[in-house]
UniProtKB/TrEMBL annotation:
Alphabetical list of InterPro entries matching this protein: NAD(P)-bd_dom_sf, SDR_fam
Pfam families attached to this UniProt entry: adh_short
Keyword Oxidoreductase: yes
Domain of life: Eukaryota
Organism: Atlantisia rogersi
Keyword NADP (UniProt): yes
Protein's recorded name: WWOX oxidoreductase
Protein family per UniProt: Belongs to the short-chain dehydrogenases/reductases (SDR) family.
Length: 180
């Protein structure tokens, strides 16, 4: 009841915006006890961000990754602190390695010819989980924990708005899936 809330602008599709946000937040010199990385796009058509990266990967993963890296010292100084990364069970339906088992960076930010919206989403969510696990390994000794969470299958949101087929699929499947 005594919390003070202040909105700040952040565009995860712009690494410059992420950097400006982090600088503005740091200039306030306030503690950061919890950081929730929840923004996502799903089923979006292929397009590149101003940073020349595929937009689903940048918005869903890379923007959050960069934000946490820029605020890592603030989180450590605010200990105890926590980072919560909202991911998805769909991370189970993809791979980010090539046929020899090595990380394939081309899968993370694919060309238009190689792009499939569902796979882009799944890969970004797999990156979320891998990032959260590694972040926890590195920062938990310093009082900062990181967890990745799955909010529930087909949770109601407008994330599927980019294509009518996804909207239909979500509507038909929702009664038969776990959700909040």
């Amino acid at each position: 009841h005594k919390a003070k809330v202040e909105a700040m602008t952040l565009d995860l599709a712009s690494l410059q915006s992420v950097q400006h946000f982090a600088e503005a937040f740091k200039s306030k010199n306030v503690p950061l006890h919890i950081l929730i990385c929840n923004a996502a796009v799903f089923g979006a058509p292929w397009c590149l961000t101003e940073d020349d990266l595929e937009s689903t990967f940048q918005v869903n993963h890379l923007g959050h990754f960069y934000l946490v890296q820029l605020l890592k010292d603030v989180l450590r100084q605010s200990s105890p602190a926590r980072v919560v990364v909202v991911s998805s069970e769909s991370h189970r339906f993809t791979e980010i390695k090539d046929s020899s088992g090595k990380l394939d960076f081309n899968l993370l930010s694919p060309s238009k010819k190689e792009y499939w919206a569902m796979l882009a989403y799944n890969r970004s969510k797999l990156c979320n989980i891998l990032f959260s696990n590694e972040l926890n390994r590195r920062l938990s000794p310093h009082g900062v924990t990181s967890n990745s969470v799955h909010p529930g299958n087909m949770i109601y949101s407008s994330i599927h708005r980019n294509w009518w087929v996804y909207t239909l699929l979500f509507t038909l499947a929702r009664p038969f899936t776990k959700s909040m």
